[in-house]
Amino acid sequence: MLGHDLADKLFEGQDPIGREVKVFDIPYRVIGVVEKQGNLFGLSLDKFVVAPASAPLKRYVNPPRVVDALAVKANTQSEMREAMSQAEAVMRSRRHLRPRQVDDFALETADEVLDFWGKISRILFYALPGLVAVSLVVGGIVIMNIMLMAVAERTREIGIRKSLGARRGDILRQFLVEATTLATVGASIGVGIGIGLAALVAATTPLPAAVAPWSIIVGVMLGAGVGIIAGVYPATRAARLDPITALRAET
Question: Dmax of the chain from CA atoms?
Fold first, then answer.
């Protein structure tokens, strides 16, 4: 059995089934190709060869009469615990260990992997909110600067609107809506990019990745909130402009 990437490299554009490959100059016939597994942290999971345990290849990958590891799969958690108990008893008997002696072998389950992933998740749980807060502050400052520039460039327009009867509240709402729209559109684009990246990770790696619907709503609402907060000062500044002074401003 060949891994997907290895089969593509050795038999590019050809069907590898039934063809011959040499491993340590030992000829083997390909009987199958493992379905593509993807990448894990940039490392391919599809570059491997699977051969029978009794094949001559074992002389090169394992010392004589030595088994480095044995993988066992159980259907349920209870069966897994029973299998581990039996395996431990067999290993202690084969290695002639006394009741008080410590095991000189290790039994590993998926729980260790899940525990490692849980630790990473906890670190991300505490670190990501801080990164998000910094991003929101930076985004708010950028939006505020953009709106201040908009007010400076449209001073004459504001003066014309006020001379035609627009009130302070009208000017205030206009710039608040513009700031909120700018932030909401940016948040929507960010959510779209996040959904695309999650789909890419899920498609190319064995890591589970998905965007929860509630997080989309929260992201858009946070964007709108940042737009409102960041737009208050520029909108207030625009609303307080004297119409006569504004009309004298050069465009």
Answer: 99
Question: What crossing angle do the helices spanning 213-239 and 110-153 adopt, rounded to 10°?
Answer: 20
Q: Which residues have C-beta within 8 Å of that of residue 160, sequence separation ≥ 6?
A: 246, 247
Sequence-distant (≥ 6) Cβ neighbours of residue 89 within 8 angstroms: none
One-letter identity of residue 9: K
Q: E strands of the chain, at which residues?
A: 20-23, 26-29, 39-40, 43-44
Rg (CA), the chain: 32
**CA of 148: how far to CAs of 18, 135, 184, 227, 246, in Å?**
71, 20, 18, 13, 15
In 3D, which of 7, 40, 21 has the Cα closest to residue 204?
A: 40
pLDDT (tens digit per residue) in 99-149: 888 888 888 776 766 677 778 778 878 888 888 888 888 888 988 898 888
110-153 and 155-163 helices, crossing angle to 10°: 60
pTM above 0.90, yes or no: no
* pLDDT tens-digit map of 29-42: 889 888 887 766 55
172, 235 Cβ separation under 8 angstroms? yes
3 state SS of 174: helix
* SS3 state of residue 87: helix
Report the 10 Å Cβ neighbour count for 173. 13
Alpha-helical segments (H) within 154-241? 155-163, 168-204, 213-239
- The packing angle between helices 213-239 and 168-204, to 10°, is 150
Helix (H, G, I), strand (E, B) or coil at 208: coil
Q: Is residue 25 within 8 Å of 192, Cβ to Cβ?
A: no
